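Troubleshooting log. The previous run stalled partway through. Resubmitting the same two chains, unchanged.
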Amino acid sequence: MKVKWWYVGLLIALGLAVLAPLASSWPDGLERVAEDKGFIEVALEPFFKIIPDYVFPGVHSEALATILAGLLGTLILFGAGYGLGTLLKRRG
Amino acid sequence: MHIPDGFLNAATAATTYVVSAGGVGYSIKETNRKLGDRHVPMMGVMGAFVFAAQMLNFPVIGGTSGHLIGGALAAILLGPWAGTLIMSCVLIVQCLVFQDGGITALGANVFNMGLVACFAGYYLYRAVVSLMGEGRTGTLLGGFVGAWASVFMASIACAIELAVSGRSPLEVALPAMAGVHALIGIGEGLITSAVLAFVAATRADLLELQKV
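Second attempt completed without errors. Output:
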């Protein structure tokens, strides 16, 4: 079986998702500015929660929960991009 | 740079929703007109890569982190309209499934990290490539400059939205947002160039896909 280039591309993305627990937990640029300029407290809680903060609910290990959330999201986005591409590409 | 619920006032949230809906609608039209079979797996891989890479916050300075946005990379490989579409998919899934970015701020987030990042990134990249030539140096330098500009411009758009919403005066929000994102943009530039170098070394033909 010939290995298609995008199998490798998807594997790289899934590999990055596995590294997600190593990410810096410091606030990002916008959060930092919102803290410094005193408007971070106007942020509202989300109206509903499914996998909040990229932590898969009900998993004891936070690292594992983050990896699971990352892998799931990566696969969803691969499917969304590939599906949308298939739907929109030129016919014939 | 994902804006949560509560940061934007109703007028700003509504305006950016309308503009982004128009932009995404036109992206669908352009993509439908130009996308070919060979683009389809790239659409999937870009969605997957941008989502995964956005989880990897890297430290910048003094307790602040940043992460790849990916709009410039997606636009350089796919074209600005298809890139906007991929960024919109990522932002919609992040908002609805992972509660990253508020549902009322989705229009603004798609505007900043989709439309602004993709178009600023793509056209700055094209400008550098037209000056430096299509070779490896032009591609990598163009990728760096385009990616840096994509983050910088997106942060300016975000600062304007915050100022218009009354969160912080523009003369405070603009230098603060642009300043920290000028640094985060260096990370965006390095990652984007590295990915382009990897693609050029392994499957250079993928850089030649028609831009949508």
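Takeaways: The beta strands of chain B are 58-59, 65-66. The longest helix of chain B spans residues 170-202.
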